[in-house]
Structures are given as C-alpha cells and as structure tokens.
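@channel sequence for tomorrow's demo:
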Amino acid sequence: MAGTLEAIWRDGHWVDLAILITLAELLALVVWRKCRANALPWPSYGWNLLSGLCLMLALRLALTDGHWALQAACLAASGAAHAVDLRRRLQR
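structure tokens (generated this afternoon):
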C-alpha cells in the first residue's frame, strides 16, 4: 500500500488532476460570466487562478524531473501573476 501511494505521489498525476479541476473551475466561471451580467469580471479571479496554475506546473515539473529552467520560468510566471493580482487589489 505504501509503495502504491509513493508511486502515485512521485508520478505527478495527482497534480494533473488538480490542474484539470482548476481549468474546469476557470471554464465554469467564464460560462457563468457569459450567462450573468452581475458575475465577477475576469481580473477578479483570473490572475489568482493563473498564479496557482503556474505553481502547479512548476510542482509537476519538479516531481517528474523536468528541466530546471522550465521550473524556474513557471515560478517566475506565478510570481508575476501574483504581483499583478496584488497590485489590482491594493489599488481598489
């Protein structure tokens, strides 16, 4: 049992599932936005989701021995998206 859990952890497929769930959430929010005039605008959730997705991609690359430069690029993109999100929130 422990070996199976370790294999599931190390192969990174659970991160793929988390990424798919996040993309489904994004799709649901976009559809909801199209159907309702008073729904949240994209910037209210988009930068936060983008930051999280970039972190998950960096984690996926780290778990599967992806190239360090791609890991660094994902982390940098996450930080940039987070900075944009924070700046937007602080300007309100």
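heads up for whoever presents: The chain has one domain: 2-91.
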